[in-house]
Design goal:
The structure holds two protein chains of two kinds.
Chain A (H helix, E strand, L loop, with lengths): L13 H32 L1 E2 L2 E2 L2 H8 L1 H34 L5 H9 L6 H12 L4 H10 L11 H12 L1 H12 L3 H9 L4 H30 L2 H7 L7 H10 L6 H28 L3 H4 L15 H28 L15 H8 L1 H35 L4 H15 L2 H12 L14 H26 L2 H9 L4 H29 L3 H6 L7 H11 L2 H25 L7
Antiparallel strand pairs in A: 1-2
Helix pairs in contact in A: 1-13, 1-17, 1-18, 1-19, 2-13, 3-7, 3-8, 3-10, 3-12, 5-7, 5-11, 5-15, 7-11, 8-10, 9-10, 10-13, 12-13, 13-19, 15-25, 16-25, 17-20, 17-22, 17-24, 18-20, 20-22, 21-22, 22-25, 24-25
Chain B lengths: L1 E12 L2 E12 L3 E5 L6 H9 L6 E6 L2 E5 L4 E2 L7 E4 L11 H11 L4 H14 L15 H13 L5 E5 L7 H18 L2 E6 L2 H7 L2 E6 L2 E6 L1 H6 L4 H6 L4 E12 L2 E6 L2 E6 L7 E6 L4 E3 L6 E9 L3 E8 L2 E8 L11 E6 L3 E3 L2
Parallel strand pairs in B: 3-9, 3-10, 7-8, 8-9
Antiparallel strand pairs in B: 1-2, 1-4, 4-5, 5-6, 10-11, 12-13, 12-15, 13-14, 15-21, 16-20, 17-18, 17-20, 18-19
Helix pairs in contact in B: 2-3, 2-4, 3-4
The chains are: A mainly alpha, B alpha+beta.
Amino acid sequence: MATIERTRKDSFDFATMAPHLVWWGTIFLLCVTVFYPSVVLVANSFRTGDHFSLANFVQLFQTPRIYTSMINSFKVVIPATLLGTALGVVLAWIVARTNLPGKRIWQMFLATPYLIPPFVGAISWTYLLGPIGLVNKWYMELFNRPDPLIDIYTIGGMIFVMAIYGYTIPYIVVLPAIQKIDAAVEEAGTISGASKLRIMKDITLPLIAPAILGGMLLLFMNLLADFGIPAVLGAPKRITLMTTQIYQLIVNFDMPNHLQIAAANSMLLAVFGLIGLQIYQKIIKSGKYAVVSGKGPSVEPIKLGKWSVPVYLFLMVVVLVTTVAPIAAAIFTSLIKAVGVPATLENLTLRNYRIVFDIDSIKRAMINSVSLSAAAGLLITFLGLILAYMIVRVRTGTVGSRIVESLIAIPYAVPGTIVGLAMILAFASPLPVIGINLYGTYWILLIAYLSRFMNIGLQTITGAMTQIHPSLEEACRISGATQMQAFKHVVFPLLRPSIYAAFFLVIMPALGEITLSSLLWSVNHETIGVVVLSLQEEGKVTLTASLAVVLMLSVFTINLVLRTITKGKLGL
Amino acid sequence: MESLVLEKVTKKYNDVTVVSDVYAKINRNEFVTIVGPSGCGKTTTLRMIAGFVEPSDGTITLDGEELANAMYKRFVPPEKRGIGMVFQSYAVWPHMNVFDNVAYPLKIRKMKKWDIVEKTREILRIVHLSDYEKRFPHELSGGQQQRVALARALVMEPRLLLLDEPLSNLDAALREQMRVEIKEIQRKLGVTIINVTHDQIEAMTMSDKVIVMDQGKVVQIGSPQEIYNRPANSFVAKFIGSANILPCEWLGPVSPIKMKIGVFGTELEVPAVKTKQKRGLVAIRPHHIKPDPNSKLRGKIVNKLYKGDRVEYWLQIENEKICMVTDAGETHDFSNDDEIGISVQHGVWLEH
């Protein structure tokens, strides 16, 4: 305690100022990349020529193609949501409440579809149920029929694929809710004389109802916003949903005012999403969850007994349909010399994989996707760390914190198609003042990825930081450490697993990103998603399949790394 | 000798005053306890001394050195204050073992390696943790984590040790043991300690001096005996020990140190206090009320609570319910609805 600094000004240094610089820098960047594009998007939706009107919205309902796409969206998304939720809840219940053997392995398999980018899932299913898909071919050969059994390129096909990939969302939401139910709550029912079925109906279901409803709404919003599945399955028969229709409008340069109509269409889509979000937050905040989080012993698992065989069969069918069959089909297709050749050993080849790594545009797309994801991941974890520290510790509960948090949440919450369109509208012409043109460059993709995925990184790190009690840092300060030293010695080491997790949680969806990429790519600046989709449209089936397999393998590997780092807390 | 001086220390958050005008002088090697109900500002006061909260007004001086001066915006950051602190949640760093936790303040001060080892081992011996050097916090009990926190706060021989309700998370038996140990360590190392608690028993048993706070203000400073026997107001009387607070009237002086007051129509002699008021309150401790068959003051027993070593009677006298405590061993045994005579042996006049 030899020298003691007398005033605060003495300890002014760059280290303590840096977080504040980053804070204001981020606010500025958010204004440029989120606030400004949002305003431009809204303004454009009301613009016709040089005056403002509702004409664009009127035109939405007068153009049959657009009108039909809205109807289609609900025709697909509502049944898919209901099917997916039903499947997810039943599976969650089986896993949580029965004495199912091999639970851990089942849990892993049941969550796997969550990792597969939806458009890759859709492509994999075309190998089975496309007009010349494996299943249809076997059916036609076996029964000697001229027509395929099922055609995946239909509304029904979309419902099917959305449901089998979507069920993971309600499953992941409902599973912990069921697991947390206090045994005493149900035992109180038994002691009151209720049968097992009555308890289920009167106690268990009402308790997990908020979780089910919440999971269902999340799924609904996710499916409504999805671009990949309708892009893959709708293309051959020109069936469009809202997202794909907006995409069509954006790229339809012959249509006058096409971007403004697309903006109006986006506003409508955003409104549906916002309504869902409102209801979702009401359910979460209703407090009904409080009852579920008991501390008592968990409920005695139900013995399957004579039901074990049917339950096992059911789970096997689910895993076969959602995971094994499509992945196997993709792997098989990637290994054959040409589509339609008999599946004999001499027709199998690794040539497709060599070609994938030989074609320049594909190679470039892979390099782009990897570098974009890595750059986004690194920047997001770095910014996320500083922002989380500011939000949780320095500017706790201030208006500024709330503004930053919502500006970061918006691009993640609204459908990617809308984010892409807003970016086009905002950055298609050179930026005011500095005159730089971002559209058509690599940088617009990076900006889009950053604003889209920032929320994942920030949420992961803020979540972890709120777990660190402030007194741990204060103990450091009182021991003689400066704020920077306290951060370095205590906060950072404790956050390390979450920092790695944030990085991988960003690059997983970024690698297979398709929605933003398909709107913002340009020659030399393609991504894997864009290339897969265009190869698929060109009918280069075997190449698409091998690229899809590479993509799935990467995502699975990253997930494995994530699980190992976080000791199973994150990842599936 | 004075060590820590608080002058006019005030903390406001926007319009809300959390701590207001605190004056206190704390002597070297003194064990001082700040006690009060939750939300009384005691923790904020402690955090201002530590340097985690900047006072909005006033000065804090430690050994003649100004730690905080709101007027001149002078503020020494916590790491430069040379103060030790034990947190309510212990705040033992989960990613460091016991040795590294305790050695941290020395490492930060860039002490020589050998000195660090020696000093850390010495303090670990004092808190009885010598065999736990390599353990990690999750392998320790609550009491052991508490000792780690204490050792870490003491290892750099602080001028002042702050305790932020560190005993409140321990079970009753362990709390008793830690009280004794902390007192022993204080005697051994000779360190000034400021302890914050809402537990009045802890305040009474451990402290040389007690500071009672209520609603952001200091209401009384004194030795435990003074606080107990001469509470400054009805809040202190009720908060420290229990007390019956009854309306009374001033009747006149008896001697330079005694005066006469009237309660329930009977007369009572209490310590003399300068007052201009005719009506006031009297605080009477339950064990200062005794059964007295000859007394004119009578009350009806409405509730009887057996507490093992003593019996608590609740008596209805006029519109008041008062509490009387008798030793369980005493011969009389009253029942509910009995009407008994009582006499008051001691009381303290409080301003209305």
